[in-house]
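We close this part of the discussion by returning to an individual protein. In the encoding step, the backbone of a single protein was reduced to a row of integers, each denoting a local shape. The sequence in question and its structure tokens are set out directly beneath this paragraph.
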Amino acid sequence: MPIKILSVDDEMDLELLLTQYFRRKIRKGEYEFVFAHNGLEALTMMVKHPDIEIILSDINMPEMDGLTLLAKVNEMRNPALKVIMVSAYGDMGNIRQAMNNGAFDFATKPIDLDDLSVTIEKAIEQIEYVHQMQKEHSQLESLKSDLAIAREIQQAILPRVFPPFPEYSGVLDIAASMEPAKDVGGDFYDFFRIDDDRIGFLIADVSGKGIPAAIFMAVSRTLIRATGVNGGSPADCITRSNKLLAAESVDCMFVTVFYGILNVKTGEVSYCNAGHNPPYILKRDGQVEVLPTQQDPMMGAIDGIVYHEDSLQLNPGDALVMFTDGVTEAMNKDNEEFGEKRLEDTIADVAMHNCQQINDAIKADVAAFTDGAEQSDDITVLALKRL
């Protein structure tokens, strides 16, 4: 598209002068000139031609002078619209005022067209830069909108209704939360019924942050849930899910996973740990123990891994507290980590509380410790308690 230039001058011979001098650029479609003879006509032409990007304006004109026109142009707040003021050499006071009021540049009469051509080229460079910045800003706004939608979708696919199993009221308590460090995160949790007696539950942490981690998170969650609802053992579920995920993994992405199956009648838990932080067992008397787990690797990184599983007995009043490393590695302004000891102390203090209170206590203590420091990793907690 040609650069459209509006010349505003009450001297009629300037039209012929400009069209003659710039005739080659006009023929090539690089420049297009429109003309007005005072400020009022110029405003009318700008309505008729909203794509005008350069204004060559005389200062001294009837009906509306160039300085008033410049003020009107400034009110439009269009950074891509450049005004070049034209006046007699001796009119430096008005020229200086125009420059102070936001004119891009100036030319003096009699006009040196070679110099004016250079000034126009400079203006075009600035206009192209502004357009590029506007395009990038628009892209960023679009990305921001997409991220907001992605955040809503991600939060929607995580269970958010607690307690999640009304049929187990009085037998089982579960609460969980995920706070992403960015607009979208790579942590996730899930739980689902397998049959009348068993539920599956898991917590996971995808490598990396942002959009790639969020996509990998959605795929990983879908694979584990789709495999887990069939009722196979935790080790079998993670082994099968790893085979599928490793075959499609890109950029060396992986996910650490703790997956367990609880028998709600007996309290027996079978579990498999694929490289995740070992959960804590919180006894009803306040004793906190690290759950022993196998040293199996994370999921999605290596094909052909055969995972192992263990089991534990949850007695009435006992809880299993799971978390991602965003909790223990949360840092304060002095670059100190929250750490496992503080987490253990927090958990021990809420032994008689329900799962939501356990969850809230952990998040509150982490927030108090970090004291406004920037969150560097997703923070996810899942608590499960046998009542």
Observations:
- The chain has a mean pLDDT of 93.
- The two ends are 72 Å apart (CA to CA).
- The longest strand covers residues 198-206.
